Amino acid sequence: MTDEDRPNSPRYQSWIVLLLSLNFGILFFDRNALNFLMPFVQPDLGLSNTQVGILSSALSLTWAVSGFAVGRLSDRLGSRKPIIVIATVAFCACSLLSGISHSFLMLLGARLLMGAAEGGVMPISHSMIVIEVAPERRGLAMGVAQNLGSNLLGSGLAPIILVPIAIAVGWRMGFYLAAIPGLITAALIWFTLREPQAGKAGTNEPTVTLQEAFAERNVLLCALMSILLVSYLVVCWTFMPLFLTNIRGFTPDMMSWLMATLGISAGIGSFVVPAISDAVGRKPVFVAACLLGLFLPLGAMYLTGSIWILVLVFFFGWALNGIFPLFMATVPAESVDPRLTATLTGIVMGTGEVIGGVLSPLAAGAAADVYGLSAPLWMMFGLTALAVICALGLRETAPRVLAKRALLAGKPASVG
After folding, report:
1. Which of 114-118, 209-213, 284-288 shows the lowest mean pLDDT across its residues?
2. Can you name the residues that pair with 200 across neighbouring β-strands?
3. Which range marks the domain in which residue 36 is found?
4. Residue 54 is assigned to a structural domain of this protein
5. Are the CB atoms for 361 and 352 separated by under 8 Å?
6. Total number of domains constituting the chain
7. pLDDT per residue as tens digits for the range 45-99
8. How far apart are the C-alpha atoms of 324 and 376, rounded to whole Å?
9. FRET label pair with 107: which of 43, 56, 368, 398, CA 20 to 30 Å apart?
10. Is residue 13 in a domain?
């Protein structure tokens, strides 16, 4: 590695963000594969809607536990790169296990293991970015790392690639092919990234404790938003493909393109939404994105006529995906000591996954068995409405906005 590529140079900052984004994208391709293949898996394995919800909940549960435990361990040890590499190889193996599953219980075990492998990847990725990337570009960098690859690959390309494969050669082949790219990114991370050096003046000890961090209102509100919006995403990923094919009568191919619209939206939003929040502030962007999210489930249930109108509703309604890295990592890191980023991200993400990701698909699946597949979409609407209320309570943390306010007031910038 040349001096031009040394850590903290612009070139290295760009490379670490793009590589971690690609790695997380491959991870999400594996995670979302079952959702897009569910119209084929459900009849083949004879699954009920409740069992579909349990499969989603299982991955969320172990994802959450792993995110908290691995993020905390990483902050304590100061070791990040080896953990990401090991986790990446592990989730590739779990994708293969999903493909060979021939029963609900076997598939459930594979999803539990996949969540355990994947959960710690994003908290550690965020902590590496906080250390390596300049603060004035932090929101954009963290947005790209969490949202660009995950949505272009995990939500955009995944349905377009996996559904035709399932139609042509069966759903199992989709899981086998999904396991290969992660091995490549694991090698790239190992050979091209250095272990980030956190802390200054010879100490890595955070200046605040976790107890003090959670006394901060922003951290608590971000954890609550994580519960609500992780629920929104998981319910959508789990039941929207079934709703579009079984209730709206779309073909699997048309369903795959509508779901791919979500990935395209979030891929673009990974740049646009965090960049706007860097410029105008986190809070107004949170409120606007959550309000747009209200329209997606309503459009899916009630819009008829031109399919392109529905495509636009899916595209703009999914803009709320762009705020996920902001409430999961950026705002907590900006509200307290940034050296707690991996721990806080693991806790905020883990809270959302445990309470939202685990319970919401279970509740949505049970409701769908009783009231029909419209019930999960009404849950999405209610969850987003509550997220708007939480967003209104946040204190602004964007460094550029605070600096402008301080300049106007003639005072040092601070969170407020």
Report:
1. 209-213
2. 203
3. 3-196+208-409
4. yes
5. no
6. 1
7. 998 888 988 888 888 788 777 877 776 666 666 668 888 888 888 888 888 888 8
8. 21
9. 368
10. yes
